[in-house]
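Appendix B. Chain record.
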Amino acid sequence: MSLNESSNVKVSVIVPIYNTEKYLSKCLESLIGQTLKEIEIFAVNDGSTDGSLSIAKQFAAKDSRVIVLDKPNGGMSDARNFAFPHVRGEFVGFVDSDDFVDADMFETMYNKALETVADVVECNLHHTFDDFEDTEIVDQITDKNDLIMNGRNVVWNKIYNYSWLKSTGVMFPSGLIYEDVSFCVKIIPFINKLSYVEQPFYHYVQRSISTNNYQTLKTLQILDILDDVYSFYETNGFLNDYRDALEFLYTRILLCSSFSRMTRIPDAHDRSVALPKNWEKLISTFPEWKKGKYLREYTGKHSMFMKSMNSFTYKLAGFLLPIYYKIK
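C-alpha cells predicted for this chain:
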C-alpha cells in the first residue's frame, strides 16, 4: 500500500527499534493493518545488531507508508527525537517495537481528537504475557495536578496534536531511561484538552529481558529524570502552581516504584549505593514531604507504606525486601 505524497497524513507513528527481531514483524503488521489508512510509520533502527533493520526494510519495500530511519545506537529517547523532524502527520503517536496494537486504534483515537478538539487522546491497554492478558482500565483524569500525581506516564497509549506538541518545546531526554516520565509530566501544564477512549487498544508485551525487568544502578537515572522535570517546571514558571503535585509525584515514585526497583538490584553493593541516594533525593528536594498536602489526603495504593516511611523504616524496608525477593 502507498500513501500519495499529496495526501494528508492524519497520524504519524514513531517506532524506535533496538534488537527486537522476535517481535518486530507483529508490531509492524499491526500498524500497516490499521483501519486508518492515512498514516505513516517511522521505523527508527537505533543501531540494532540483530535482524531488526532487515525486517523493517522488508516492510518498507511492500508498503511505502513505512519509512526506515537508520541511526547509531543512542537509546529510546534519541530514536524518538530523531524521527520528529520527519513527521508530516496532524497527530503523532509512539509504539514500542516489541508491542502491538488493535487495528482500529488510530482511527478511533484520531476521530476522538477531532470530535473533542483535543491536544492529547489516551486509550486503555493490555499487559500481554505469553499465555494471558491483564487488561488495565483506569479512571479518566483531566485535572492537571491529578495528572501530575496519578497519570499514566507512558507515551505509547496516546496520540498528540503535532503542531501543539512542537509549540511546547518538549522532547525526550536523551541518554536516560524512564524517559516517558519526563515527557508526560512536562507536557501537562500545556494541555488545553485531554480526551479518552475507553477501549484497551494497546498490547504492552511483557518480556523478562526488557529494561524494566532487570535492575542495575541505571535505576538511579530516575533521579536525573525527576531533577529534569523539576528544573523544567522552575524554568518555565510552573513551579508555584504545581509544587504540591510534584512533591507527591516525587514521594510516590521514590518510595514506591523506584524503591522497589532498587531493592531488586541483585548486587548488594550496588543496592547500598542506590537506596541512600533515592532517600536523599526525596528529603533534599522536599524536606517537608511527609506533611505534603496530597499525601495527607491520599488513601490509595501504598498510602500506608508511604506515610510510615522515615529514615529508620526506610532502611529497615531496604534491608528486608531484598531478602523477601530472594526467598520468593
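Further analysis of this model is presented in Appendix C.
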